[in-house]
Amino acid sequence: MPHHPSGFALSADRERAFREILTRYPTKMGACIPVLHLCQEQEGWISPEIIEYVSHTLDLPLSHVQGVVTFYTLFNQKPVGKHQVWVCRTLPCALRGAGTVLQHCEKRLGIHAGETTEDGKVTLRTAECLASCGTAPMMQVDKEYFENLTLEKVDEILDRLTR
Amino acid sequence: MIKRVNYLSKVYGIKNGWTLDVYEREVQGYQAAKKALRMTQQQVVDEAKKMNIRGRGGAGFPMGIKWSFMKPHPTKPAYLVINADEGEPGTHKDRTIMELNPHSVIEGCIIGCFGIGAHVAYVYVRDELHLSKERLWGAIKEAKAKGYLGKTPFGIDYPVEVYVHTGAGAYICGEETSLLNSLEGKRGEPRLKPPFPAQAGAFGCPTTVNNLETIAMVPAAFLMGGDNYSQLSALHHLRDGGSRLYGVNGHVKKPQVIELCVGVTLRELIYDIGGGIEGDRELLGVIPGGSSTPILRADEKVNAPDEKSPLHPWHGKSVLDVPLGVDTMRGIGTMLGTCCATVLAEGTCPVLAMENLMQFYRHESCGQCTPCREGGAWLFRTVTKILDGKATMEELDNLHDIANNIMGNTICAFGEGTAMPALGFLQKFRKDFEAYVLGERTREDATLLVNL
To answer: Which Pfam families match (chain A) (predicted)?
Structure first.
């Protein structure tokens, strides 16, 4: 895998994953989103260096990669906290207390949705429907779902993250 | 009529139910694929047509007919793409399949690929669903190790590969052409149709896009025979066959996902399956199948005096007593959608509910078409203004115009998906909207919660 002058490089494991991803699609462009995920997994966000790197390695115009990154909600365009907390705010969750869960998180963490705690540990966000309506209210912490939330459960989860 | 079955859900409660061992032991896993690969392609498509599976993603298009649109191309390969970008507010069924019965998806993909003449299937999963992705990749690995996937599935010379592809957080990627763009590594913006995916889909090649539940249902339906499967449904005569996953959420005592034969009514879903309304309140309304499907009021009656109307048998009865089907829901002015109902109890504010949904649609518009991008934001702003007591009656009336001007003026159906529920709330709860404009109610009075 050629290294880009931007200086960004994937770890050896991820570079192997990159090569495997390329075999799944008939075009290099097909790998664009999975590879961006791979880069973000390593760095936490999509830096300008990553955009250059992906554009270079997949032979895509910079503007194309930039366009993809800005289109999708889950690509972070600036550094984020160590942990990501997403509280689903959409109707089925709202009907079962998502508003209260969100307010509680904001109060506990001392930040508004969209912000990161001062110590850089937690970024709090709202999510648009996470397909968990039957077990509402819910929140996603990093890669894990927490469902049928009560404020006590929320406290336990936040305690663990902020410890 | 409630008729519980467990073709998809039999392995749901079983320990390690998502593994190949359990799948083979409990539901004759991979026997259907083995059988299908020994038939001709045409026979497989004919069998699929007999199943009368109406697309489970929301549009309700007959699956077998969709498969039959695929014609071999002299130089280009064909693709099967599975839509598992579940993200419609109120919809929570596909996730259970991926997490608890992923092998049904892989087996469905083998049969589907053979039926449409494809050798590669992509399962497009929402990136948020990490457990789903893990289970699907796990199932692929197991199936490959057994020789069910790969160069010669079951020893037959018909290579099939299945890959999981993810988006990165965009509801619009559940729209099939937007999903294809996203699969190709582009922004998930919908494409103009025609050409339809069957002519030019993924990577410019003939493609069938099926919903995840649709494809996962195929192995079981195949084993019991297409026609037998279709006849499970009370709406078999309307070519709406078989069983499906029903969801119920919101203000019910027992929100859940359950597999039932097609033909259950909303009343049964809410009161028998859902256990009734929280706090034993009255029902205010129900969104039948995802937030894009217009809300039904508890006191609405079916108006179908014409004897030729498929709805005539329920003329004069409550809309809650009509069996949930693709055509029956259309007949009463809403849609079946994804068959997961969101229940609102009496005392919930419909204006606040609409504001919540309009915030969703404003956020999720891909921005390509002006009526949707600007209209969605305008709807949200105006409802917010109404709730804050700052809107005039003229602005309330404007909402109808804004919504009507989105309808039919956009590339994809997202515009209608925004406008139709908006119009539903406006028409059915006019007095609630007026109360805020007239200052009889304020945002402080509005709640979405049932306080027990």
So the answer is: 2Fe-2S_thioredx (PF01257)
Q: Which of A100, A129, A144 sits opposite B360 (nearest CB)?
A: A129
d(CA B159, CA B155): 10
CB B241 within 8 A of CB B231: yes
Q: Edge to edge, what strands does the sheet with A139-141 contain?
A: A122-127, A83-88, A139-141, A144-146
Angle between helix B102-116 and helix B130-145 axes, rounded to 10 deg: 60
Q: What is the pLDDT of residue A4?
A: 64
What phi, psi does B227 have (nearest 5°)? -70, -45
**What's the rounded Cα separation, in Å, for the pair B417 and B279?**
31
Min Cα separation B87/chain A (Å): 6
- 3-state SS track over A9-37: CCCHHHHHHHHHHHCCCCCCHHHHHHHHH
- When pLDDT is cut at 50, 70 and 90, the band that residue A162 belongs to is confident
| Cα B184 from Cα B365, distance rounded (Å) | 20
Q: In this predicted complex, what is the ipTM?
A: 0.96
Do the beta carbons of residue B18 and residue B11 sit within 8 Å? yes
Residues of A in contact with B130 (CB under 8 A): 143-144
Round the average pLDDT of chain A to a whole number and report it: 95
* pTM given for the model: 0.97
Q: Is the pLDDT score of A2 beyond 80?
A: no
- CA–CA separation, B342 and B287 (whole Å): 5
Q: Are B245 and B336 in contact (CB under 8 A)?
A: no
Tell me which H or E stretch contains B404: helix B393-406
What is the predicted pLDDT for the residue at B451?
75
What does the alpha-carbon distance between residue B376 and residue B371 come to, in Å, rounded to a whole number? 8
The CA distance from A139 to A127, in Å, is 8
pLDDT tens for residues B371-384? 999 999 999 999 99
Fold exhibited by the domain A12-71: Arc Repressor Mutant, subunit A (1.10.10)
At residue A3, does pLDDT exceed 60? no
Mark out the alpha helices in B146-261 (DSSP H runs).
176-183, 212-224, 226-230
Nearest residue in chain B measured CA to CA from A76: B168
What is the CATH superfamily name and number for domain A83-162? Glutaredoxin (3.40.30.10)
Distance to chain B for A79, nearest Cα, Å: 17
Are A95 and B357 an interchain contact pair (Cβ–Cβ within 8 Å)? no
Answer yes or no: do A92 and B170 touch at CB < 8 A: no
| Cα distances (Å, whole numbers) of residue B140 to A14, A55, B100, B217, B306 | 21, 30, 14, 17, 51
- DSSP notation for A57-119: HTT--HHHHHHHHHHSTTS-SS---SEEEEEE-SHHHHTTTHHHHHHHHHHHHTS-TT-B-TT
Range list for CATH 1.10.10 in chain A:
12-71
Q: What is the mean pLDDT of residues B221-237?
A: 97
Closest Cα of chain A to B162: distance in Å? 9
Mean pLDDT of A105-118: 97
**Is the alpha carbon torsion for A127, A146, B173, B221 positive or negative?**
negative
**The residue to which tokens 């009021």 are assigned:** B297
On whether the CB atoms of residues B17 and B100 are closer than 8 A, the answer is yes
